[in-house]
Amino acid sequence: MNMRKITISTPALLMLTAFMFSPAIAADSYEAVRAAVQALSPGAEHIAVAETPVKGLIEVQIDSEIVYFSEDGKYLLQGRLFNLATREDLTDNAKSGIRKELINSYDTKSQIIFSPEKADYELTVFTDIDCGYCRKLHDQVAEYNAEGISINYMAFPRAGIGSASYKKYVSVWCANDKNKAMTDAKVGDDPVPMVCDNPIKEQYDLGVKLGVSGTPAMLTSDGKMIPGYVPPVQLKKRLDAMTQRNN
User: Fold this and answer.
1) Along the chain (247 residues), what's the average pLDDT of each consecutive run of 10 residues?
2) Tell me: domain 10-92, CATH 3.10.450.70, correct?
3) Domain with CATH 3.40.30.10 in the chain
4) Angle between helices 164-174 and 200-210 (to 10 degrees)
């Protein structure tokens, strides 16, 4: 079981540290918790407080992060909350709702899409032009399509904005035939350098907000994240299993 630590930005961590030791927070008042977070972090765009199945533990969403507090506000817990009976990752369930909202609000016209005529599943795939496993995934894009999986690419140049991979993605986006340019770039052919209005930085920033830390990173339409490369047939089985669990 991978208990990956949730990373919080420095401003958020400072805010949460102050919140953790604040004696003014009422033990059972969700409104007091929300007001305290707003007072300590006026830059937070979204704050939500919810119950958890664990007595005395409160879930707090601050923008795209999920953390937990004791009811008295004295203790902060970072990490993942699992239900061992059902093997559910309750933290990821909460984050899935955040990711779903962010992804569904994004214009698909800004994606480079490889899709079958009838797609059973649409995956948002954050990709890097030079990433080895991203190239392996794209090499099998026809096989994913044959399994009824649409691959909807969004940019995540791992080296950051302004890097060589970033510039390649910009050139791919600016090409007349984006799909062909993407395929050519994925086999190692450097695209003709081009510059135009593009969504690459916007997509990279969205990936950071969604918690993407490596590529490829795949998101389902309901906000579940599947990190890393998964072969086509295995991915279809995994998506089918996820659908059955949700029904």
Assistant:
1) 38 42 43 64 70 79 75 73 83 80 84 96 96 95 97 95 96 97 95 96 92 90 90 94 79
2) yes
3) 104-246
4) 120
- Rounded Cα–Cα distance for residues 228 and 128 (Å): 12
Q: Is 160 helix (H, G, I), strand (E, B) or coil?
A: coil
Active-site residue flag, 174: no
Is 134 an active-site residue?
yes
Please tell me the distance from the alpha carbon of residue 50 to that of residue 4, in angstroms, as a whole number: 22
**Of the listed 89, 92, 99, 134, which one is catalytic?**
134
Give dist(CA 13, CA 163) in Å, integer.
29
Which two three-digit tokens encode residue 166?
Answer: 């970033």
Marked catalytic residue, from 128, 130, 135, 174? 128
